[in-house]
Amino acid sequence: MNSYLIRMTVPWLCPFLLVMSIWILLRGHNAPGGGFIGGLVAAAAIAFWCFARGVEDAKRWMRVSPLHLMIAGVSTALISGLMPMFAGKPMLTALWHKVEVPLLGKLPLGTPILFDIGVFFAVVGVTTSILFSLEEFELWNRSGPS
Amino acid sequence: MTTIIESEPWLATVALISTIIILVSMGMTVVHLLRGPGLSDRVAALDLTALLLLGAIVLYSLKTGNPMFLDVALVLALLGFLSTIGFARYLEERNKP
């Protein structure tokens, strides 16, 4: 898109959206939010970059290919599901461990947050891969299928 | 826990008046969305609808005293214009020969 204002705004706005997506990811389980919605917000940030500066620039900004993100997300979720089996519990049981953080108190860490992180990366990967495919098809269509 | 609207009774009147104003302007925006002569007018009306919805969400949060809705408003404010940009892009592509 050929607009100077949007091209200059995007590098300032997208980091805010990504921070917001991580915040939404972390507040899940106790409040509205979670991996899926956080992943959608992060994908919206990448979509915004893609609209403003083109597909190639968005891919360079992401640094990781969407396929790798998908694989990493699904394997993280799978590992979090398999972890209770080694503790002698059924698959996908939530395991909790309280970590002592200095000055802040106890931080409950469990497998649900790991599962949510996996969902987050899978959603980002799927959405951006669909978006990039559509954009590339559009570019190919415009240049003429010669 | 008392909500802010219980400790400050005049806020109820403010919320009522603001709700009426937002409702009236939303109706006018919908009329503009349906009648608008061009596609770009309709896109602008859609953007305005999202902003009015944001105001309505904040008012509802004030009325119920639930701060959870403010996060919804925050996300909507950050992402609401993304659809407008998508439409603008589509219009730009369409007008190109």
UniProtKB/TrEMBL annotation, chain A:
Residues 6-128 form the Na+/H+ antiporter MnhB subunit-related protein domain. It comes from the Bacteria. It is a multi-pass membrane protein. The chain crosses the membrane at residues 12-29, 35-55, 67-87, 113-134. It holds the Pfam family MnhB. It is found in: Cell membrane. GO terms for cellular component: plasma membrane. The keyword Cytoplasm does not apply. The keyword Flavoprotein does not apply. Signal peptide: none annotated. Keywords: Cell membrane, Membrane, Transmembrane, Transmembrane helix. NCBIfam families: PRK12509.1. Belongs to the CPA3 antiporters (TC 2.A.63) subunit B family. This is Na+/H+ antiporter subunit B. It comes from Acanthopleuribacter pedis. The lineage of its organism: Bacteria, Pseudomonadati, Acidobacteriota, Holophagae, Acanthopleuribacterales.
From TrEMBL, chain B:
One of its GO terms (molecular function) is sodium:proton antiporter activity. Its main location: membrane. The keyword Transmembrane applies. InterPro entries: MrpF/PhaF-like. It is found in: Cell membrane. One of its GO terms (cellular component) is plasma membrane. It is a multi-pass membrane protein. Keywords: Antiport, Cell membrane, Ion transport, Membrane, Transmembrane, Transmembrane helix, Transport. The keyword Ion transport applies. The chain crosses the membrane at residues 12-31, 43-62, 68-91. Pfam families: MrpF_PhaF. Belongs to the CPA3 antiporters (TC 2.A.63) subunit F family. PANTHER family: NA(+)/H(+) ANTIPORTER SUBUNIT F1 (PTHR34702), NA(+)_H(+) ANTIPORTER SUBUNIT F (PTHR34702:SF1). This is Uncharacterized protein. It comes from Acanthopleuribacter pedis.
